[in-house]
Specification:
This protein is of the alpha/beta class and 374 residues long. It is 26% helix and 22% strand. The two termini are 41 Å apart. The structure holds alpha-D-galactopyranose.
Amino acid sequence: MLVQTPPMGWNSWNTFGENINEQVVRDTADAIVNLGLRDAGYEYVVIDDCWSMRKRDENGRLVANPEKFPSGMKALADYVHSKGLKFGIYSCVGFLTCAEYPGSFDHEFIDAETFAEWGVDYLKYDFCYKPGRADGALLYHRMGLALRQTGREILFSACNWGREDVEKWIRSAGAHIYRSTGDIGDNFQSYKEIAVSQFNNLAYSTPGCFNDIDMLICGMHGNGNVALGGCTEAEYRTHFAMWCLFNSPLMIGCDLSKIDDECLALLKNKELLSINQDIEARPPMKLTRDGDDRTVFFRHLSNGEYILAFFNLTDCDRTMYQGLFDVGLPYDGGYGFTGYEIFTGEKLEGERERVIVDVPMHDCRLFRLKLTKI
Ligand code: GLA
């Protein structure tokens, strides 16, 4: 299976936007290896919009912009592959891409062939400039067929921003991940809105096709194409912890030549990645009923452990409380939870009633727990 667990990698859009070029891609591939990100599981190097010429060639084929990509896409894919990484590119269901380069409408099969010839392993497929009456689902089906037809294994990343009840049909179209939200910006409010909008759609993220809640902003610090002021260290931590807990793909969006040590450590955090990459990919259960700002989730892991996650999305520090009866623990059942909080190391020993924890503003606490006899 191509995506047994959420795909991980890097995408050019958040930082570079239309200023993408071959050197950036090569440097990023080098950095993914040199910073230990490949060993942590980051695998795909994806070029987003703005890589092509404004017109197709005389045979109707897409052409890479030779000023941005002088060696051509095939050579670039070869380079990325030589680093033990995979190569991704971008197109769109419509006449044009979102930045108004040629889209794949009515060219699905020829474009899929071109991508396969170049050695593409991943296609992000956007939703702009769709012909008025065309059915969105049908257009994703078309590209799904076209990619399969190439015989090359290409991860199909649908990006229709959650329109047309996408979670109900996107698996049938052959997609491996699907964007369920609008575009992320680099600040707390932006990712909070995205995360909250998917609180009730977490069960739609499963092996074979994961709910993509957009690229990561960790490490951007207010720079780049989707800069919106940046986040604090706690805010980036909460962002990454949510994306991991929610089984989202993890596509880094910052400039890896400028990444700070805290964000690099966060992106390589073994505890969080083991949750995101858990083979069973069970959705977390949302426990709080009093709004979304103080939210607790409980998640089963395949090794018999559990995650109890507290997110304080309010604008002040809070003491948060969770009764364990609500996660299925009978008070007199003879069992309690034992384990630790993954950021602070705080311990729980045979707790059977409740967990109470201080969570600073915009921060999170995640306990990794086991059931023990008490
Ligand atoms: C849309 C997508 C973004 C990005 C841009 C490129 O807005 O949602 O992720 O791909 O298009 O133009």
